[in-house]
Design a protein that fits this description.
Number of domains: 1
Order of helices and strands: HEE
Strand content: 35-45%
Number of helices: 1
Radius of gyration: 15 Å
Distance between the termini: 59 Å
Structural class: alpha+beta
């Protein structure tokens, strides 16, 4: 039983750290005026979503990944 509690604690702590990391990507992209298409928790089918003019926020079925999907600009030489 102790192993399961320890594993759950580790998952929660890592999830929180990834949240902070991906939120940093989101905020810096916004400050640099880069369009963020989607900011989501998890992967797989969408459970909940909210769409604004610029960004789609989503919670997906498998909460093992956070991501910030933004538009990449092409480089011109």
């Amino acid at each position: 039983m102790g192993f399961i509690i320890t594993a759950l604690k580790i998952i929660v702590i890592l999830g929180f750290l990834v949240l902070i990391h991906e939120t940093g990507h989101f905020l810096v992209a916004r400050l640099c005026k880069i369009k963020v298409n989607e900011f989501a928790i998890g992967f797989g089918p969408i459970i909940w979503k909210k769409e604004t003019i610029n960004t789609k926020y989503a919670i997906r079925l498998i909460p093992l990944r956070w991501f910030c999907k933004y538009v990449r600009r092409r480089r011109t030489l």
